[in-house]
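Section 4.2 – Deliverable D4.2 (structural model, holo form)

The reporting period included a commitment to supply a predicted holo structure for the target in complex with glyceraldehyde-3-phosphate. Inputs used:
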Amino acid sequence: MPLVTTKEMFEKAYKGGYAIGAFNVNNMEIVQGITEACAEEKAPVILQVSKGARAYANHNYLVKLVEAAIACNPELPIALHLDHGPDFETCKSCIDGGFTSVMIDASSKPFAENIEITKKVVEYAHEHGVVVEAELGTLAGVEDDVKVSAEDSSYTHPEEVAEFVEKTGCDSLAIAIGTSHGAYKFKPGTKPQLRFDVLHECEKMIPGFPIVLHGSSSVPQEYVEMINKFGGAMPGAIGIPEDQLREAARSAVCKINIDSDLRLAMTGTIRQFFAEHPDKFDPREYLKPARANIKEMVRHKLIDVLGCNGKA
Ligand code: G3H
Ligand code: 13P
Ligand code: ZN
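Output (structure tokens):
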């Protein structure tokens, strides 16, 4: 089937009490690992591409990789999404360039300006059959070249969401409830806890409307330990507990973003491979187990965290 938008995926996910996985893609092995797991588990999927991914791999390569994944998995519903679109021009380039969904992230701008920029993207996107994710509230962490400290992050104000959704016409809304980007989400020794009260207040304001969670990697300690054991140094890397993500997936949260966990699986596996096979230098030999571990991690997310297996 051709690329789909997220419209039907989100309608079903909202009603069914599960969430769609949105996984960041940067190269062929990541695309393959994700889509093979999704095809085997019959899980609709969002493949998302950041500004950094486009700069690294080139827009055309990424689109062609996703087209190849469609050809290899013809039954699998796949949406191709721009992650954290920084401005109208980037969103337009992706809309014109074959994406079925874009995010305009003007969350760092004042409320009125966020509405204005988002509305402009929505108008252009909808004219072209593309859906738009917007964001209210600021997550901590690093995304592309923007770094937001924990002090400068802020939870979404539930009293703003209905006006924002109505005035912009966006199709889904990313909110800030304590998730953050990257592998260091909570200070060691503190109790990781999402603000479900903020989530439920937001839900009440926009009933039936799909909510998105960014920064939702759980930073599996298995891979952090593997990286540290084989020459890396990632002390104190902590993610979102998976039971909290599962709880979020049962609510109005229809899309959960995962990138760092893929990076950890890939990096840990490759570090281990090199440590155990110092004489090897064929990229296929170390990328193969890395791809296999990404696949198994995605399978685990689909079944145990998102609950979207069997929904395609
Ligand atoms: O939210 C950010 C995503 O993890 C993408 O990361 O900008 O390094 O590609 P990136
Ligand atoms: P993580 O860094 O938690 O994987 O978040 C990814 C993300 O939100 C992409 O937009
Ligand atoms: Zn994000």
